[in-house]
Amino acid sequence: MMGASGPLPPPRVTPTQLRVAAPPTAAVTRPAPAVTPGRTWEVSASQSISYAVQLCPGVLEPTNPALARAGTDPDRDSRRRFVVIDDAVDELYGNRIRSYFAKHEIEGRFVIFDSCEERKTIDSVLELVECLDAFELDRRREPLIAIGGGVLSDVVGLLASMYRRSTPYVRVPTTLMGLVDAGIGIKTGVNHDGHKNRLGSYHAPVHALLDPTFLNTLDSRHISNGLAEILKIALVCDRQLFELLMRHGPELRRTRFAAPELSEESGEVLVRSIQGMIEQLQPNLWEGQLERVVDYGHTFSPTIEMRALPELLHGEAVAIDMAITTMIAWRRGMMTRDECDDVLDVTRSLGLPTWHDVCAPGLLMDSLRETTRHRDGLQRLPLQNGIGRATFVNDVSYAELAGACTDLRRAA
Ligand SMILES: NC(=O)c1ccc[n+]([C@@H]2O[C@H](COP(=O)([O-])OP(=O)(O)OC[C@H]3O[C@@H](n4cnc5c(N)ncnc54)[C@H](O)[C@@H]3O)[C@@H](O)[C@H]2O)c1
What we know:
By secondary structure, the protein is of the alpha/beta class.
């Protein structure tokens, strides 16, 4: 379902309309214009990026101006916004969202997007283009606003990067996955032809407003889903965060980070994960450096997630990937048996799986080959080196993957 405007289906080019070019026929030779051969123009520019990722509890409180002002110049603000809202969020918070904009004298056009991984497609982006055209967006004065989870954030981010080549947008993540990961970086994307995030872009939001009170209404499976990305940061960069998860993870999950007696711990877990993620992303926003510790858990998971769709959520696939690499690290002597058991115990205590039956060694090997192509010919696989540190390896073999699968299947 897409909101009120009833978009027309976009025109399509089916593959049968494309044809393979025939070999060129000899062209008639004419005198060339008098230019110096080899004359070259070097074009070089650099783009600086700056955007705020702001903790903003109570973002929908009528007295909080942050969302109304985000991404605008008060002197040039048109007082109109195109707001894309996750359907579940609209049911729960729709009235508050509408009265927020009304209170700030902003005319909102609210488009409801039914978020799920299957809707993370280029068709969804094109449907939104139709709605944007109907709205007659003034892109210099009217930043798009995305209120929802990682799926919506990825779709609207891609839309914003393509619409008139680049349109500013504001992210308001409403899931834990969004708060600690999808809502704070600059990547956008949609799945295509069975491949995770096959189409996408790097397009920074102008502002990301993080309000953890949205977690109050999130179901516990999606809390666990976000905890997978927090666990990732803990395992490869922050041992203290891992210890916090070990001690308080199950209670944070049960209470959706809202237990008054754990408010300090909830805050610390959220802030450490956001900070850890930003520290990793910022020096490498366009991912020119291919050894990225934040790729931990993201080598096998894209294939596992797509193969198991709709059974596994993104974070669940990441958790399984992390369990596989934990076993490989243990088999290589990079972790002790106790550390390995702690990781698997904490994963399970957060409500996350460590195994799925799609994980045949052949499939994992295919996934590793695909990732290797993506990482310029080397595996660059982050493996845990103890807890809280990572080392990159390039020589993981089929036999190691088969061994890890056997261990995990047995444990499951
Ligand atoms: N771009 C990035 O850097 C990046 C990083 C991590 C993940 N991702 C992507 O994020 C996606 C997963 O995001 P997700 O886990 O947020 O899933 P999601 O967006 O599908 O949201 C999960 C579910 O929660 C509902 N929901 C959202 N907010 C709610 C709230 N406050 N209360 C109740 N229900 C609510 C949604 O309707 C949906 O059913 C994946 O596609 C993943 O690839 C992107």
